[in-house]
Amino acid sequence: MTKRQEIILNTIVKEYVKNSKPVSSKSLADKFEASSATIRNEMKELERTGYLKQPHTSAGRIPTEKGYRFFIGQPSEDMFEKHFNDLFKQVGKQETKVFIGKEIPMVRMKKLTLIVTNYRVSNKRQETIGLLGPTRMRYDYNISLINKLRQMLEDYE
């Protein structure tokens, strides 16, 4: 798959998930510096290789299970890792941080809370542990739990 096809596929998956409507070559041409015909040819190739399907002749394309699987493989490596790395940079040594709702950039559900802390292992490498749960949680208990886990992990090493 070419880089352009990857970008087109990823965009189609995002648009389809967002709008629940087949994505047209014209709507994609507006986003990319390419003609509708060029995008249509790329979409046909993605359809031929099983990543997209066309529900009916005059419709745009929608992702297949194979298309979703490809998409999931990329964000799980790229976006998720980037967001977590950025988030964990905010957590200092021996400090527990609580991120509530919109403060968690990589999670679409805003009714969640993430509690994270860093700990050091014997080789002085820093690791991070966390707990993701509903916003309505026992904060006192869960913060204590994460802090106790950090202490146990540092003592264990």
Question: Major beta sheet, specifics?
Answer: 3 strands, antiparallel
State the name of the first-level CATH class of the largest domain: Alpha Beta
Silhouette: elongated
Contiguous uncertain segments of 5+ residues: none
Helix content: 40-55%
- How much of the sequence lies in strands comes to 15-25%
Distinct helical segment count: 6
CATH architecture assignment of the largest domain: 2-Layer Sandwich
What CATH calls the topology of the largest domain is Beta-Lactamase
Distance between the termini: 44 Å
Strand order of the largest sheet: 3-4-5
Total tally of structural domains: 2
Structural class: alpha+beta
Radius of gyration: 21 Å
Order of helices and strands: HHHEEHHEEEH
Task: Describe this protein's structure.
This protein has 157 residues and is α+β, with helices and mostly antiparallel strands. The protein has two domains: 75 residues, Arc Repressor Mutant, subunit A (Orthogonal Bundle); 76 residues, 2-Layer Sandwich (Beta-Lactamase), CATH 3.30.450.40. The chain is 50% helix and 17% strand. The protein is built from six helices and five strands. The strands form two sheets. It has a three-stranded antiparallel beta sheet with strand order 3-4-5, covered by helices on one side. A hairpin with an 8-residue loop joins β1 and β2. α1 packs across α3 and α4 packs parallel to α5. The model has no long low-confidence stretch (mean pLDDT 84).
